[in-house]
Amino acid sequence: MRPVIITANWKMNTTPADAGPLAADIAKATDVAGITRIICPPYTNISAVSDAVEGTGVLVGAQNVHAEPKGAYTGEVSADMLKGLVSWCIIGHSERRRDQFESDELVGQKTIRLVEAGISPMMCCGEQLEEREAGSAVATVQAQVKASLETIMAAGNGLPADLVIAYEPVWAIGTGKTATGADAAEMADAIRATIADVGGADYAESVPVLYGGSVTADSFAEFINEPSIDGALIGGAGLKPDQMAGIAATAAEAAAARANS
Ligand code: PEP
Predict the structure, then answer these.
(1) Which of 72, 153, 175, 204 is the most exposed place for a label (fewest CB within 10 A)?
(2) Which residue's CA is the nearest one to ligand 1's atom 7?
(3) In Å, how far are 56, 88, 201 from 36, measured between CA atoms?
């Protein structure tokens, strides 16, 4: 059975001073059974968050990693630098694809680095509004996932056992708009079909697919009630303990229902 996962992506928010107290508040607010909780603070606040959530079961992730193992890349952070500090890392977020022009192949390279370092990859994908309106959303997202996974396969080590995919329609991120549960579920099925093409049907069934894009305590049920969706990647609401409390409570209900079915 796939885990139910809720992940807060704090983006470029919080300081070393306020990250620890916020993480502690979120850990307390989301203290429910049966789900995986992850907080991804900025690099500079990873240690403050780790200290604050110690013993709570909350896991800590990074928001990005460099695709090369080391070298002359001023200001960048390698997977080895994150080793021991985080257990998860987001890769291929649409804001990085937009601002740093990250390609699907680069996202695949980053995944390889994370696997080498023993860090679990949370790989983002998602279509632009024009692509959804043109009816090409599924093909776009499938092409993204396929290119990243084929890059990993080409390196010869197979696909990561702990891979998570976060489907985030770009037009829904930070806009207050969400996909419908049915559209997100259709995409999750399409993503798993692509994963199956590259890595086999059993492997595809084991990969959690999260939804991201303006998820709140009010909207989350629509997504987690879809059997093919296994949780959420949460931006804005991930900075609000009361929102995270509602999301976690709904996630726990879904996890319990799945365990009993
Ligand atoms: C995100 O950052 O991945 C995200 C989904 O943001 P928001 O929830 O604010 O749309």
Answers:
(1) 72
(2) 235
(3) 11, 12, 24
224 lines ligand 1 (CB under 6 A): no
Residue 209, token pair as written in the block = 């697919």
Segment 7-17, tens digit of pLDDT: 999 999 999 99
> Could you tell me if the CB of 111 is within 6 A of ligand 1?
no
Q: Tokens 């998860």 appear where?
A: 88
Pocket residue to mutate for ligand 1, from 99, 233, 243, 244, most atoms within 8 A of Cβ: 233
Report the separation in Å between the CA atom of 3 and the middle of ligand 1, taken as the mean of its atom positions.
20
- Phi then psi for 72, rounded to 5 degrees? -85, 75
Atom of ligand 1 nearest to the CA of 214: 10
Residue range 187-198: average pLDDT? 98
pLDDT (tens digit per residue) in 131-141: 999 999 999 99
Query: How many Cβ atoms from other residues are within 10 Å of residue 154's Cβ?
Result: 11
Cα 167 to averaged position of ligand 1 atoms, centre (Å): 11
> Mind listing the pLDDT tens digit for each residue in 72-82?
999 999 999 99
What pLDDT, on a 0 to 100 scale, did the predictor assign at position 117?
98
Quote the CA–CA distance of 112 and 82 in Å, as a whole number.
14
3-state SS, one letter per residue, for 77-121:
CCHHHHECCECEEEECCHHHHHHCCCCHHHHHHHHHHHHHHCCEE
